[in-house]
Amino acid sequence: MRARLFRSFPRCHFVSAIQFKGISTSGRLYQDITMYRFAKAALNLSGQSARQLAVRQKSDLSTQFHAKYGPPLLIAGATFCTAVWAYVITSTGITWNLSPVGKVQPKPWQEE
Q1: Would the pTM of this model clear 0.70, i.e. be above it?
Q2: For residue 57, is it within any domain?
């Protein structure tokens, strides 16, 4: 069975190069295939577990939370952001890189 699994997966040049150097990859490839089968089996939901998952997904707790706390959180966040930027602009002493157009004049040309 193990040999049949390896024949179903094409080997690329990288794998061939690793095998040419004498590093065995067959054990790692078998582990990857086993892990793939395990994940596939874990995701195969039975009918009852799928219904339970659907019931959990239709919970209205998040809609109640957003309806109750959404606008105050949005207002508080906007106020905080505005206050932080007002502080940064006015009080930190950062020299902003404004446009030098009209402020920088070329030096006069000097003939030698």
Answers
A1: no
A2: no
**11 DSSP 8-state letter:** -
Given this model, what pLDDT does residue 50 score? Answer: 58
Q: Which two tokens stand for residue 22?
A: 């004498």
Question: What gap in Å lies between CA 107 and CA 55, rounded to an integer?
Answer: 76
- Give the separation between CA 1 and CA 35, rounded to whole angstroms: 16
Backbone φ, ψ for residue 102 (5° rounding): 85, -10
Number of domains in the chain: 1
- Using the predicted structure, report yes or no on whether residue 57 has a pLDDT greater than 80: no
Q: What single-letter DSSP state applies at residue 12?
A: -
Measured CA distances, 37 to 8, 9, 14, 30, 107 (Å): 14, 14, 24, 11, 75
Cα–chain-centroid distance for residue 61?
A: 26
Tokens representing 66 are 């957003």
**Scanning the structure block, which residue is given the tokens 């295939």?**
33
* pLDDT score for 107: 81
CA distance 83 to 89: 10
